Amino acid sequence: MVNLGILPHESTEFIRGFDEIGIILIMFALGFEEDTSAFVKGIKLSWGIALFGALAPFAAAYLIIMHYWSEPRLAIICGLAMTATAVSLTMVSLKSENLHKSGASTGIMTSAILDDIASLAAVAIIIPMATGDAEITLIGVSAILIKAVLFFCVITLLELIIFPHQSDLAIFRVYPFLRRFGMRGIIGASKGEHATLVVLLTALLIGLLSFQFGFHLAVGAYMAGLIIKQEYFRFHSKSSIPVADSEDAGYAYTKRIIDNVAFSLIGPVFFVELGTKITFDMDVLVGVIPHIITLTLTLGILFAQIISASLAARYTGNFKWHESIMIGFGMLGRAELAFVIMDIGYVQNSVITTDAFYTLMATAFFLNVSVPVLIKWWKPYFAGEKHLVLSLGKKRLELSNSDS
Predict the structure, then answer these.
(1) Cα dist. 237→183, 184, 255 in Å?
(2) Which of 197, 188, 204 minimizes the C-alpha distance to 249?
């Protein structure tokens, strides 16, 4: 629309503000849909997938961007953008193949959440240095690290002590009256009529808190969503929420409203605003077409992600080969968080160059397309309908499911 002259090249201040609200809502919605308990339980199996499945694509993106443009700050931001996995895209692809309840699906989800949290922490630490807001000195780096640690300590305090109405911590046994002041009591006020307003206000306050620590509001919004648990909506048996009578009806109703606002009403403004930055300038297109056509960045990240995540799933998470390969495929998506980082680096701070921005957008597109395609292709091997065996000399390696 920008290139056809329907939308202006430069948006108004109002749209840019609306765009910021969209980022906050999207990141809160992504954190809100995660099950914190399942996430904590899955850490033991998925830490290696998250670690190596993040380092490998980051290194691949960093080296390729450095080869193209020889700019360390640019390479670091681009590496961060290509590190975070798109949880929602992979889960939709797995659900369409009826694989969303498998062990591999749990491994993907937990690893992707860990990746996202690590990426957010890295954004909080690296962006101020990359944009010049903080000095790249021992004192400057130490100050950012200390602020990051303090912020996540505050989030941990909220998650363990302030929000819970039930907890095994000794302070709740010594002072049982503290259980009355948890998040469930606030959400359940007026029979839960204002639950959506309460959680959105919480996201705003924690977002503003993260901003005071020098981080992007999206960091705080995501963490707010992650620490607001489903159990906080189980305030009493009767409420005014117009949904089916069930234990988690309040949570489902609130989540539906937040998802509609984040992904259908205000959130899309963020993606449209980001899309307006893609103007068809002939000089830019000539400069980036070779990178896009050769798929150097796409293939580099694709192979680095699949190999690192699959090997980590097999040898650190003790998944079987057919599950490990599915996890490698499921970790390929790059969506909301990648675009948030691109927005911070390109639109807000001009660290990402126009050529690199176009290349990253094309890479994210190809990686996202590959997720449902590869999952659908691997499904027969995953389910045991087909068998894939590699012969390594005298050794045979069974990659598909031999249990079915």
Answers:
(1) 17, 13, 19
(2) 188
Identify which of 96, 144, 89, 105 has the alpha carbon closest to the alpha carbon of residue 121. Answer: 144
Query: What phi, psi does 234 have (nearest 5°)?
Result: -95, 65
CATH number for the domain running over 13-398: 1.20.1530.20
Which amino acid type is present at position 77? Answer: I
Work out the number of other CB atoms within 10 angstroms of the CB of residue 161. Answer: 14
Pick from 193, 195, 170: nearest CA to 184: 195
Spatial neighbors of 129 by CB under 8 A, at least 6 apart, are 135, 136, 140, 141, 144
Q: List pLDDT tens digits, range 143-186.
A: 777 887 888 889 888 888 888 877 767 777 777 776 667 788 88
Tokens describing residue 272: 């449209």
On whether the CB atoms of residues 314 and 392 are closer than 8 A, the answer is no
Burial of 128 (0-12, 13-18, 19+ CB in 10 A): buried
Q: What is the mean pLDDT of residues 73-86?
A: 88
Please tell me whether the overall predicted TM-score, pTM, comes out greater than 0.90 for this model. Answer: no
> Is 177 in a helix, a strand, or coil?
helix
Which one has a higher pLDDT value, 150 or 106?
150
pLDDT at residue 88 above 70? no
pLDDT greater than 80 at residue 346? yes
For residues 398 and 321, is the Cβ–Cβ distance under 8 A?
yes
Helix (H, G, I), strand (E, B) or coil at 391: strand
Distance CA 90, CA 109 (A): 8
Buried b (16+ CB within 10 A) or exposed e, 85-102: bbbebbbebbeebebbeb
Q: Using one digit for the tens of pLDDT, what is the confidence trace for 350-377?
A: 889 888 998 998 899 899 889 999 999 9
CB 74 within 8 A of CB 353: yes
Phi/psi for 70 (5° steps) reads: 55, 40
Cα 233 from Cα 243, distance rounded (Å): 13
Q: Which two tokens stand for residue 43?
A: 């850490």
Helix (H) or strand (E) holding 169: none
Which candidate, 378, 365, 361, places its Cα nearest to that of 306?
378
Structure-block tokens of residue 28: 């809160």
Type of residue numbered 95? K
Q: Tell me if residue 229 falls in helix, strand or coil.
A: coil
| pLDDT digit string, tens, across residues 210-233 | 888 877 787 788 889 888 988 888
